[in-house]
């Protein structure tokens, strides 16, 4: 189990999420909950309603339109899509399982063990002697 170091005074966590987005990560939320304080006290002021309203209190001017001919034109360079390589042979029929997905588990009806079936069971019972 991995452990993370949380410093509430510096508002940091060793996972780096708190420093990146300025919102407490799950490790720091656990620590804040253990000392019975509100998590909202540790969220950055950038996410407050006052800062949001101050951002948009002035008019925002639209970007002026321009003519496409004002843009620099490439000098006779044709950009082609990347070449794709098709692998030789027939494509595989079975899909590749994602992480955590379990392949079908075979259970033997003879010995009740996992990993093989009745036909490939090595634990065969004694064959009765019909002819003596």
From TrEMBL:
GO MF entries: zinc ion binding
InterPro entries: Znf_PMZ, Znf_SWIM
Highest taxon in the source lineage: Eukaryota
Keywords linked to the UniProt accession: Metal-binding, Zinc, Zinc-finger
All copies of domain SWIM-type, residue ranges: 4-36
Region (Disordered): 72-95
Listed name of the protein: SWIM-type domain-containing protein
Organism listed in the record: Colocasia esculenta (Wild taro)
